[in-house]
C-alpha cells in the first residue's frame, strides 16, 4: 500500500481514469449517430446501445469476484484493457446487426470490467490519503469533456463513418495507462458474517432504493441512446451536440464540489425527491422545448441532479446499509440492477417509442418513469443506519 503522496503516483492513477472516460466521451454522444449512418433502424440502434449497459449486469460481479479471489486486480485491468480493444477492432470489419451486437457485447464485457477493479486499486494505493480520490477521479471528467469536444469538432470536418478510427488513439491510451498502474499489495478482508446479505437486500428501504435507481436509469435510456439523434433532428451541429453533452458533465463536477454541504443540510430522502423531480422536468424540457437553446442549456445543467446528486447519495446509502463486509457486493448490485438492467431496459424501451412515435415520445417515457420513482421514493425511502 502506498502511504505517501507522490506526484508520479498521482499521474499514474489519474491516467487510466482520463483515457477510460475519454472513450466514453467519444462513444456516448456519437455512437448512435454512427449507427444511424450505417443504416440501422431505431430499434436496432437502441438494442446495440443497450449492450453498453447490459454487460454491466454481469461484468462487475464476475470481475469483482475474480479480483477478490486472485488478488491480481492490476493484471485483470491490463487483460481487460487489451482484450476489450482487440474485440472492438471487429467494428472495422463493418459486420451486420448481429455481428456488431456480438462485437459490442464482447468489447463492453471486458471494458466494463476495468472500472470496478480500478476503483479498488486506486483507493488502496492512496491508503490513508483517500481524501485525494476526488482529485484523481476528476481527470476522468476532464477526459470525457476533452474527447466530446475534440471528436465533435473533427466530425464537423469528416464523415461520421470515421468515428471508430478517431477512437483508436483512445484505446491506445487505455492500454498504455493500464501498464502504468502501480502494483497492488494483497489485502485480505475479515470473513463476512453469514446470512446477513439477504436480510439487507430484502429490507424495504433497500428495495425502495434499488427501485428508485432502476427507474432513474430506465428514464436515462432515451438520453444515452437518442439525445444526439434528437438534437440532430432539430438542426444542431455535431460540435454543438458535443458541447451540450459536455455541459452536463461540467454541471456534475460542480455538484460534487458542493455535495457535502447539501448532505449536511438535507436528508437523503429530501435530496432524492428533489433530484428525481428535477430529472422529470429535465426530460419534459428536452422533449418539448428543444429548439430554445437557453432552455436546453438549463436542461443539461440539471444533469447535476439526475446523475450527480443521486449517484453521490447512493454511494453513501450503500455504504450505510451494506457496511464493511458486504460493501463490494452492494456496489456490484447497485451497478448491475440500476446502470445495467435499468439502463439496458430504458434504451430498449426508448427504441420502441422512437420507432413508433418520435424521439420526443422517448423523453416523455423517461418523465413518466420519474413520476413513478417519486411516488415510490416518497413512500418507502428511509435513511441508512448510523455506524
Key traits:
Growth Hormone, Chain: A; disordered N terminus; 387 residues; 2 domains; mainly alpha; single chain
Task: Explain what this protein looks like in three dimensions.
It comes from Marinobacter azerbaijanicus. The chain crosses the membrane at residues 16-33, 45-64, 76-93, 99-118, 138-156, 162-181, 201-219, 239-259, 331-349, 361-381. Its main location: membrane. It is found in: Cell inner membrane. With 387 residues, the chain is mainly alpha-helical. It folds into two domains: 1-184, MFS general substrate transporter like domains (Growth Hormone, Chain: A), CATH 1.20.1250; 197-387, Up-down Bundle (Growth Hormone, Chain: A). Helix content is 78%, strand content 0%. It contains 17 helices and no strands. Helix 2 runs antiparallel to helix 3, helix 12 crosses helix 15 and helix 13 (268-288) packs antiparallel against helix 14 (293-301). The radius of gyration is 20 Å and the shape is globular.
Give the CA-CA distance, first to last residue: 26 Å
* Unreliable residue runs: 1-7, 186-195
What is the alpha-carbon Rg in Å? 20 Å
Strand-pairing-aware structural class: mainly alpha
**Superfamily (CATH H level) name of the largest domain:** MFS general substrate transporter like domains
β-sheet strand percentage: under 5%
Strands, total number: 0
Number of domains: 2
Element string (H = helix, E = strand): HHHHHHHHHHHHHHHHH
The appropriate CATH architecture of the largest domain is Up-down Bundle
Organism: Marinobacter azerbaijanicus
Main location: membrane
Pfam family, one: MFS_1_like
Keywords: Cell inner membrane, Cell membrane, Membrane, Transmembrane, Transmembrane helix, Transport
